[in-house]
Amino acid sequence: MSELRTRQNIWTLVGEDPADPWHPVVLAYARAIGVLQDRSDANADDPTGWTYQAEIHGMFSDPMDGFRNKCQHFSWFFLPWHRMYLFHFESIIRSVVEGLDDVDDDTKAMWALPYWNYLDGQESRRLPVVFRLQTLPDGSPNPLFDPTRLRVVNNGAPIPDVDADYFAALQPVLFTGATQFGGAQTGETHAFEDPNSAAGPLENSPHGAVHVAVGGNMGGFETAGFDPIFWLHHANVDRIWDVWLGQGGGRANPTDPAWLSAIEYHFHDEAGVETTMTVDDVLDNENQLNYVYEDTSGPAGPLGGEEMAPEPDNPPQLVGATEEPVQLTGETANVSFPVSEPAGPLEGQAPSRVYLRLEDLTSQVRPGVSYAVYLNVPDGDDETPDDHYVGTASLFGVPQAGDVDRDHPGMRLVFDITDLHQRLTDAGLWSDRVSVRFAPVYVAEPAGPQEPADQVPGTEQEPGAVNVGQVSVFYQ
Description:
Oligomer: single chain
CATH superfamily of the largest domain: Di-copper center containing domain from catechol oxidase
Strand content: 15-25%
């Protein structure tokens, strides 16, 4: 096996000097992408080309070839499939880097895909400057620049803090479940539609929320892989998996054969040769895949998840829901509905778990904003207090999830609000009626001197329209 490689934080590589951001690792990445783009120009079906690699994640017209349009979302396969995907892409890029005449030998020997750590304050939430420059040091077009992104993002605006927050994603102790770290147990999501399909909190935010906040190609399944920042974003999501495991408290990957080995996923290696992988092949990135991350430390202070009681055996019980759909069109939306006392095993008892569910989310177009969700905000309060915050509803992928040809059309988002329910109950703010607020999360204009708006390529943030079929509360 070759020498262990380290995936580094892009901010470590870019450094403090915006006038000289082109670290050899980053410049090699840009030049390699240019080579992959040239391969696709010569043959769009070259499996080691830029177009084909992007289409592995998604494409508008599914070729049904077993390789493309295979991204795993809303599923416990989300994390391992994307790890396989990054591994093969990284291998292809590395093979190109090793053949570039203008890359030094040390860079060739140790090159690994960087990651975009947007979790460390406002500056880290900005798109790294090398992805905002339109030319390389030699004056040629910069392959890292994507003109479809939001103009404000290409102009240095930071991703909103609620989009980048990962505290809620780290809290669950279990991997498997609709509100657990890795998502709900499903079959292969592109093989058949699963009524249990639901993303875990990490897939929702920061993963999906960052996709939406960057916008453009990054905003949709079918085009996300065409933005070079996609690969650094997913390297960071992959790194958070390692961070979660490192938090202890019983956190561990599943041991179920249905997850480990039941499905073989198909890719191409750097030579274009067909390969297969199962989840069991990618659980130890150091010893199986030969890479580690520069930093896998987690947030300071307790996460709180260790103190939660085990999930009870009884199924969740619906105690209240809206009767009409809710429309999200880029403005703050409020909805309320009655909740009743539970029956059966929970009658007369405090629930061990409380869930807020958003069901049957559909949209004809990609929504350009995510929504911060709040519970029982006091009447007449136009603010969105942190102590009523539920989480961020990312709508990445909602057009695909709402495809009427699916067996179970519509996206499902599930939030564990057990702790919030208890706090509201203790404060006398939980009654027989629940109110839910959806506050749109826009990317603000960047502060400080920037390029004039008409000189920065990009698109404007359009919220679109999302139909939420039902908002409900469940006790368990």
